[in-house]
Every structure is written in structure tokens, then in C-alpha cells.
Write a structure and sequence with these properties.
The complex is a heterodimer. Chain A is mainly alpha-helical. In chain A, 68% of the residues lie in helices and 3% in strands. Helix content of chain B is 75%, strand content 0%. Classes of the chains: A mainly alpha, B mainly alpha.
Chain lengths: 396, 166
Amino acid sequence: MNFFIITLIKVAVVAFVLLTTLAYLQWIERKVIAHVQLRVGPYRVGPHGLLQPLADVVKLITKEGLIPSHVNKLFYLMAPFVAVTLALISISVLPFGPEIKIGPIDTWMQLTDLSIGILFVLAVSSIGVYGVALGGWASNNKYSLLGGLRSSAQMISYELPLAIAVAAPLLLANTLSFREMVNYQSGYWLGFIPRWNLFPEILGFIVFMIAGFAETNRVPFDLPEAENELVAGFHTEYSSMNFAAFFMAEYSNMVTVTAVATLLFLGGWQPPFPAPYSDVVPILVFAAGGLIALYHGLNPARRMDKYTLPATALVFLGIAAIFGLSLFVPVLKTILMALFWFCGKILVLLFVFIWVRATLPRFRYDQLMRFAWTGLFPLAMFNLLATGLIVALTTK
Amino acid sequence: MTPIFFLVFAAFAVFCAINLVVQTHPIASALSLIGVMGSLAVLYLQLGGEFIAAAQVIVYAGAIMVLFVFVIMLLNAGAEAPTFQVSRFVKYFGILLLFGFLLLISFLIQATLPKADGVVFGAFQGGTALDIGRKLFTSYLLPFEVTSVLILIAIVGAIVLARKEV
């Protein structure tokens, strides 16, 4: 029974954090793109637009869920459901941290560990395309259909380099479980270079990230929803929460891809510096953030942020204090350190996703296909063969 | 718990298989086929073949069926029109006959097969990726390699058939 209660608590926490992250990821994206393009982005709802996601959710829920008369109702309603379910389900096998012991409770910072965890994520992502494809087809609209077709063709093509890029670190670590994958990447070469798969598998990492952009339908591979060609692509006919489901699925897929990249190539929750130094990094980061916010908040020229920036500074300094405190509580330290490094790496990768979206133009469709089959695929294959050769030569 | 799950997914697989034949729309049929493959994967998982289960989903439900759906969408195939009318009497009587036939078949299979112990869920342990890999590259190396040559021939054949005449 104990197991069930702990699992339920973990599921509740993970679901809450994930859904909140998805809502705020959109705020972060709008803010980052706005600043790249020298705009301010959301600013009206709450301080610095911080309550914008809440307003968006209220708007989406209270809108009329319109079902056009010419659609295939069953598939039309099923598609967003399929998309969002399959997008959210992958998080259940991803570990966020090591084993923790609180009194009698002994649990992993992970919902469940499958011995085929990596295959599970690949399987879920491979059937995730049905949401988009079905939605595009069931809408009975030529733009939607074209969007759905493009997305299925794109996902089939990019799944190959993605899977082959994933296979190379699996060869190195000799496991399919995320936990063992991260354990394999613990330790340091020469005492300071982390033993992450990133360094031997830099090619694989690049291929994985590019294919990840395509799998999540993000710029520069967002052909399925190219708005100047296809209105809004596969979700043209969707409104209200049905549209929100597609939206959530896209962001959730982004989180999954970055989390998998972190676990496979960037050492999961392992810090990039050896133990005594890595412990002070979070304190320094949050304290520096707090001090900068305080400095700007006390600047008399910024009258609008008279209260918000000092409040942010207080929160940041508080977090820094909690990290400082955790140095004396081993359990807390394990949890916080793992979460800090894991979430930090994911956020950096998510920032890259957003950065690319703000920077690069969209591919043309034939370029997209040629890039997958003549560029990425041979590169991934070469990487896999080279890794295989090295593994074969070095192991007895 | 496991027998219940087995029954649920076995029933779902059979339901989807029947639905696949009954449905007139190709997309509905294709989705039913995905349902069959998904529930088969769950059955494999319960019998201890975790790698096979994952491969089933990735290859069949994920890759092959996406291609099916893709082609159906590309051709924009509509619902199939019924080509012949069946009287209601034949329909209901046919269902009855079908059940009788299935009962007979299952009875015959039961009677002719040698008595064996039932399947125990969780008894089979050799389904991990490691075991499958070992088997594939030692005991079954020749069939494995021959299959890969067969697939290569199929690919070359497909290209030859699809190639435009120069």
C-alpha cells in the first residue's frame, strides 16, 4: 500500500509541475522571441505578463468548442486527445534524480523505471504522429489535410536519424534503461571533464537535436503548420480546448525531447563539476540573479518595477538560502542538486529551441526531405558505425 | 491482476480485429488494426517479452501503420459502398452459425492438442533486449542474416518497380 501512496504522490507532483511548466514555457517563449526581436512581449497581465498563461487558459476554456459540420466527428474529437495523451505519457519513464531515502521511505525520483525505457519513449513518439495526421484528415479541409500529410511524412523521415542517433550512446552504455544510462555517465575524466556521452557522441547529439526539432514540428521544420501556406496546418479547424490540446502536445513533446537529450547525452542530473564545487553553483546562480534583480529594482528610473523586481530578488535570494541550508541536510541536498542540474540542462536546451525559432527561417518542403535523407541519415549512420567499431575494439 | 488485464486486452484485440473487417471506411479499419497491434504488444509484455512488445509498437503500430494511414490519406479514399445487399435473416443466422463454427473449432483444437500446463504470467524471463540479442546473433544468426538479405531484395525490387522509365 505504501508503494501506491508514494507513487500517487509522485504522479501528482510530476503532473502538476509538468502542466505548469507547459503553461509557462509558452510565456518564456513569447518573452524570449520578443526580446530577440526587440519587443517587450506580454506585459499587461500581471507584472511582466506573468499571469498571461493563466489568462490564456481561461480564454481557451471559456471559448466555444466549435465542431464544423463537415468533419468526421469521432476522429475529429479523438485526434487532440490522442496527441496530448501520447505527448504527456513519456514523462512517466524519465528519471529526474537519484534514489532518495527519507526515514523508512526509499524511492527513486522517477515514476517508473522500465528496463526498456528508451524504447518506450521511441515507441510513444512513433505513434504520436497519429494525433496530428488524424486531426488533419478528420477536419476535411485541404489545408488541414496537407498539414497532416506533411507532418506524417516528416515524422517518418526524421524518426530514422533520431533512432539511430539514440542507438550510439546505448552502445556505449550497454543499457536501455534511463537510470543506468545516467549512472554510466557519472564521474569525471582527468578529474574535471564530466564523463557525459556528449563528448564522444557530439555528432549523435547534434543529429538528435536536429531530428528532435523536426519531430516536435518546431521551426525550422514547422512545415505542418506553415501559416503562410496552410493557414494553420493540421489544427486550422480546431478551437477552444481541442486547439489547446494540440498546443500542449507540442510543448510537452519539446520537454520530452530535451529531457531525453539531457538523459542520454548530458549526464542527466549529474553536475558538470566535481562534487564540492558543484554544490555552490546553484547558490551563486540564484544569489547573483537576486542581486541583479535587486539592483535594477532599486534603480529610480524603473518606476514600473518598483515592487516586482525586489520581490523577485527576495524569491531568488530565498531559493539561494534554501540551497545553502540544504548543504547541511543530506536528503534535501540530493533532491535539490539533482533537480537543479536536471532542470537547468533542460531549460538551456529549451532556450535553444526558442532561440532557433526566433532566428531561423523555415525550410522548403523538398529541402526538408533532402536534408533528412541525404544529410542527417548518413551522418547518424556513420556515427553509429564509428561508435560500434570503437566499442568492438575496446571491449573484450 | 494480470489475468484480468490479459482478458481485457485479448477482448480488445478481438474486438478491434472484428471492427477492422466490419468498418467501411479505410481510415477506421487502419485505426482498428493499430488497436489490434497495440493490444498484442500488451499481451507480449504480460508474457515477459518486453523487447518484442516495444518492437511491436515501434515497427508495426508506429512505422508500418503510419505509412498505411499516410497512403490512405494521400489517396483520400472514401467510405466503401456496399456492393451487395444482405437480408436481415442471413445476417442474424450467419452470426449464430459463426459462433457455432468457432465453438467447434476451439473444441477440435482443445481435443487434438496434447495436455499441457497453462501459461503462468511472469514465468518466462528471457524476453529482455539482452537475451533477444544473444539469441539473434548466436542460435538464429543464419535466419537473421537471410531475412536482412530478403528485406534488401524487397527494397531493391520496390525501387525498380517505382522507378520512372528513362
